[in-house]
Design a protein that fits this description.
The complex is a heterodimer of chains A (108) and B (196). Chain A is an all-alpha fold and 108 residues long. Chain B has 196 residues and is mainly α. The model of chain B has no long low-confidence stretch (mean pLDDT 83). The chains are: A mainly alpha (108), B mainly alpha (196).
């Protein structure tokens, strides 16, 4: 326990003495590139609206599907009502057509 | 901009907030030495220092509106630089296991010198010692690595580290303790491998 921390301390003490001769000034063009990229990050108003419109469209589609699903019983009733005459017509032996009815009456 | 005149940071920040690109360039040039020193001391493997410095500056510009002046601007930027480095360190994959055979001659000598039983011995080659320190620190978890680097290499206080990382002081002490225990284990393993 007591040898190892001192070994580490001796190592870092020596390592701290390592000279760092690397240049710390910004490379040529670095600041210009960074500044340009920083402003490029600001999106124009048009593209912000476009992004919002796409999201709004997605949300409205989802809401429409949810609304139909929530009110399915009412919608189903309407469909049943619309298909009912066709079903009764197929089941009934008497035709609904008035002309046919008149011809039938004339011939009888 | 002349080197003789002090840099007008407040004025420059005002102009940067007004989207003055020239002021932004001046600000980057002014802060580059501070940022690059932080980046270099915490640089993860296989990451270009310039890329990481660029990330730091882009974050700085993005968050500039949040800077209220509660702390000096350079301190605020240093914190962004440190947290960016931590994120990069966390993102990198774990380093493969450290082996005795991976050490260069200088690193092996440095290790011999510090693990020798005589307490007075110290490695002669500071650069090799620095490389060995980097290798050993690479074995630690990113957060522990950062704490030990700041405490032992940069000789920062716990309070300073807390200010730069946003971690509370107890957490820093726990991380330092955990890291030193891991280093102790590494030294013991290396010594055993050297002997075998």
């Amino acid at each position: 326990m007591n040898q190892t921390p001192s070994a580490w301390n001796r190592l870092v003490d020596t390592a701290r003495g390592a000279p760092d001769t690397r240049d710390v000034t910004a490379p040529y063009g670095f600041a210009t590139r960074v500044a340009a990229r920083a402003w490029a990050g600001d999106r124009p108003t048009g593209s912000v609206f476009a992004g919002l419109a796409l999201r709004a469209m997605g949300v409205s589609c989802l809401l429409a599907v949810l609304a139909v699903a929530a009110n399915y019983s009412s919608v189903q009733h309407l469909f049943d009502h619309a298909s009912a005459p066709a079903a009764t017509a197929a089941a009934s032996p008497v035709p609904d057509d008035p002309m046919t009815a008149m011809v039938d009456l004339a011939t009888s | 901009m002349s080197d003789d005149q002090p840099f007008d940071l407040v004025g420059c920040l005002q102009r940067v907030r007004g989207k003055d690109q020239d002021a932004a360039r001046q600000l980057v040039d002014h802060l580059y030495p501070l940022v690059i020193r932080i980046v270099r001391s915490h640089l993860p493997r296989r990451v270009q220092e310039e890329d990481l410095a660029q990330d730091v500056f882009l974050k700085m510009f993005t968050r500039l509106e949040q800077y209220q002046g509660a702390v000096p601007f350079t301190h605020w930027v240093s914190r962004i630089a440190v947290t960016t480095c931590i994120d990069q360190l966390r993102a990198q994959k774990r380093r493969p296991e450290f082996r005795w055979a991976d050490l260069s001659e200088g690193e092996a000598d440095a290790l011999d010198a510090v693990t020798a039983d005589t307490s007075a011995s110290a490695p002669d080659d500071a650069l090799a010692a620095r490389e060995l320190v980097d290798r050993l620190l690479g074995e630690l978890k990113p957060d522990d690595q950062l704490v030990i680097r700041m405490l032992d290499l940069e000789q920062k206080t716990i309070a300073e580290i807390s200010g730069l990382t946003g971690w509370n002081q107890s957490l820093i002490k726990v991380r330092a303790f955990r890291a030193r225990r891991k280093l102790q284990k590494l030294f013991a393993e290396l010594k055993k491998k050297e002997g075998s």
